[in-house]
Write a structure and sequence with these properties.
Shape: globular
Order of helices and strands: HHEHEHEHEHEEEEEHHHEEHHEH
Radius of gyration: 21 Å
Strand content: 5-15%
Largest sheet: 7 strands, mixed
Distance between the termini: 27 Å
Structural class: alpha/beta
Length: 372
């Protein structure tokens, strides 16, 4: 990395600052000889639930498995339909399919890139049993309206919180608003493990108990070899729980730092013909997993950024209705015009808690030079 280069993420700097704490915690977990569902996992679940503001948190192996077991625990299964967004990572839909349910796409709100509540209403049908909003880029979906729709139609709501750690909607943390929230702790996430990990948050004791069973081969509560359900082995290991406990103590500060970086971007990008991320209303906050702008001539801008050693990426260049794996479902791109346009125009630029004002200015200077 040259002096003037700015990476999209900088996981090394964060890890180095906590290396000794992380190493000590990992070694302690290893030496305990309790490598699964031990004291570190139990402590992490209590601390994470407290942080999010729910009664329960159930750790699991990934964000995808969190969605899967949360849906299943909420009663979603074979033949049911789940309305979700096509503008997200594929784990959102594969997790639905693994429950035996079918996913139905609603288009996105062009201002927030999140699922459009108005289009959700249009897609509700006889088999609809749940809504699966994604808090994309760390900006909360329109949960007040989504919860209102769910109540009117007796639907479950599972939040995909993979990118929204500590984001708030109406004064409530994402993951604490609906029937359950599904979190990812993939290494690049705002709270990242040193490997894969995830968690389900909920205030529903029944959902929490079912998630604990489903992640653990369907095992009956407090029984060694009795199984109430067909589950799978989707547990988080003790080492990841120990590492996450170290990192969790810093998450609030990291989130504040991300918002500081976002404010610097907003200031330094003024006057440039790009669309910045949306501003949150009162009582809302975003976690800025990535800082995503909308730009005409997006691909040319990306080439310019790369030539100037500025990290950038597109989340997501191919909407899910265009993915080869779903070709036989015969989705039509014209049914999702806002997702289609976003996929052509969005680009994420560097965002990480340790980013300096000089680095922000460097990124903005390169973007400005492209349009000048």
């Amino acid at each position: 990395m040259t002096e003037q280069s700015v990476p999209l993420f900088n996981l090394a700097e964060q890890h180095d600052s906590l290396k000794q704490e992380i190493n000590d915690a990992a070694v302690k977990a290893l030496n305990s000889m309790k490598w699964l569902l031990g004291p570190e996992t139990e402590a992490f679940e209590k601390e994470f639930a407290q942080m999010i503001g729910t009664k329960y948190a159930v750790s699991c192996s990934s964000g995808a498995s969190a969605i899967q077991i949360a849906l299943a625990a909420a009663g979603i299964g074979k033949g049911d339909e789940v309305i979700t967004t096509p503008f997200t990572f594929v784990a959102t839909t594969t997790s639905v399919s693994l429950t035996g349910a079918n996913f139905i796409f609603a288009d996105i709100n062009p201002a927030t890139y999140n699922i459009d509540a108005k289009d959700i209403k249009r897609k509700i049908a006889k088999k609809t049993k749940a809504i699966l909003p994604v808090h994309l880029y760390g900006y909360p979906a329109d949960m007040p309206e989504i919860m209102k729709i769910a109540k009117e139609h007796n639907l479950k709501v599972i939040e995909d919180c993979a990118q929204s750690h500590l984001a708030m909607c109406g004064g409530v943390m994402t993951g604490a608003i609906s029937n359950a929230g599904a979190f990812s702790f993939y290494p690049s996430k705002n709270l990242g493990a040193c490997g894969d990990a995830g968690a389900v948050t909920t205030n529903d004791e029944h959902i929490a108990d079912l998630c604990r069973s489903l992640r653990h081969s369907g095992r009956a509560k407090d029984k060694a070899y009795e199984y109430d359900h067909e589950g799978s082995t989707l547990r988080m290991d003790e080492v990841q729980a120990a590492i996450l406990r170290v990192k969790m103590r810093h998450l609030k500060q990291w989130t504040e730092n991300r918002n500081r970086v976002a404010a610097l971007y907003a200031k330094n990008l003024r006057g440039i013909p790009i669309t910045p991320p949306p501003q949150t209303p009162a009582g809302w906050s975003q976690s800025f997993y990535v800082y995503t702008i909308r730009a005409e001539k997006r691909d040319a801008l990306m080439e310019h950024l790369k030539k100037n050693n500025i990290g950038c990426a597109v989340y997501y260049p191919v909407p899910l209705y265009k993915q080869p794996v779903y070709k036989e479902l015969n989705f039509k791109a014209e049914d999702y015009p806002h997702a289609e346009r976003a996929a052509r125009e969005v680009v994420s630029i560097p965002m990480f808690p340790e980013m300096t004002e000089e680095q922000v200015q460097r990124v903005c200077k390169v973007i400005r030079s492209f349009y000048e």
